[in-house]
Amino acid sequence: MVQKKEVLPEKSSHQILSDVLRTMREGVIIVAEDTQIIASNQSAYEAFARGNGALETKRLSEAIRDLSVHEAFRRALENGESAELKFEILAAEKRIFSVRVAPIELDKTKHAIGIFYEQTQIEHLERVRQEFLSNVSHELRTPLTSILAFVETLEDGAIDDKENNQRFLSVIRKNAERMHHLIDDILELSSIEAGKIEIEPRNIVLSHLIDEIFVNLSGKADHKEVRLTNEVAADKTVWADKVRLEQMLTNLIDNAVKFSREAGEVKVSVTEQDRNDLISVADEGEGISGEHLQRIFERFYRADRARSREVGGTGLGLAIVKHLARLHGGEISVASHLGKGSTFTVELPKKN
């Protein structure tokens, strides 16, 4: 007996269209000649419905309040023209879209279709890239200009000036080291952000590690007559990668010394919570105003650029600390009062 092959019902053009729309990641809106929205997908709903019901109950002007988009759809419906444009919508935060609008015929009737590509993240990354390149160029140009100027001075005869030639060479070395540190920090931050850095946490005797860092920074502290105080109990341990924890604390303590007042004090302490250890580095510097606190951990961000360049640093140290803290499953925060100093706190989860 020959089995009859099951014949599936033929899908209408609207059903096929609905199936296609559901598979698309981009937002899609189709309008009829009266600009009534007749079809859309989930991505379009999430972008433009604003929780006010299905898009199919609205006209285009109710969903998207941008005249350039309305004009593109009008030209597609009336003249059969295609168009590409970019526009912004303001909701809880600004979102940027590019859209391609084209005429389409459904059931022998004119319609227009718009395919919306969200560009918000791409635009943000492009701004970050441009800002990063601008900052790197600026940070490298400053020491390079100084190096070239002193090299020219030496070439013009100052190399035979016994009273000043060593001073000139010292300035060249100092600026070359600054460029070297900047490049090292850029590579380090790039590796962290690319996920190439792995941590190997274990129990670390915190007080001993802090004492080692104090020894390494004692020259800078003595130069400013800054007292380094370790308030951590001798037997206190934390769960962290030793190399990365040392890197974080060295950055924070070094900054605290740089920005502390003459004959001030830098204190390192730890507070225990149920699930976390909070390591705090406090200085007695000028403090940071509230407008800068939210951005202090951004790459190259400086609350006082002139002061920062005077005391040195690459502008990447706090960004590196932030990323290393998050690699541990923790966080970094800051509290500051103008004229009273700042306290940076690294939060590290305890061993499970």
The unreliable regions are none
Shape: elongated
Count of β-strands: 12
Number of helices: 11
Structural class assignment: alpha+beta
| % residues in beta strands | 15-25%
CATH class assignment of the largest domain? Alpha Beta
| Distance separating the two termini | 68 Å
Number of domains: 3
* Strand numbers in spatial order across the main sheet: 2-1-5-4-3
Task: Report on the biggest sheet.
Answer: 5 strands, antiparallel
CATH superfamily of the largest domain: Histidine kinase-like ATPase, C-terminal domain
**Mean pLDDT value:** 86
**CATH A-level architecture of the largest domain:** 2-Layer Sandwich
Q: What share of residues is helical?
A: 40-55%
Radius of gyration: 30 Å
Determine the CATH topology of the largest domain.
Heat Shock Protein 90
In N-to-C order, the SSE pattern is: HEEHHHEEEHHEHEEHEEHHHEE
Provide keyphrases for this structure.
352 residues; five-stranded mixed β-sheet; alpha+beta; 11 helices; Helix Hairpins; elongated; 12 strands; Beta-Lactamase; five-stranded antiparallel β-sheet; 3 domains; Heat Shock Protein 90
Give a verbal description of the structure.
- The model has no long low-confidence stretch (mean pLDDT 86).
- The protein folds into three domains: 106 residues, 2-Layer Sandwich (Beta-Lactamase); 77 residues, Helix Hairpins (Orthogonal Bundle); 154 residues, Histidine kinase-like ATPase, C-terminal domain (Heat Shock Protein 90).
- Helix 5 runs antiparallel to helix 6, helix 7 runs parallel beside helix 8 and helix 8 packs antiparallel against helix 11.
- The longest helix is centred in the middle third of the chain and has 36 residues.
- The strands form three sheets. A five-stranded antiparallel beta sheet has the order 2-1-5-4-3, with helices on both faces.
- With 352 residues, it is of the alpha+beta class.
- It is elongated, with a radius of gyration of 30 Å.
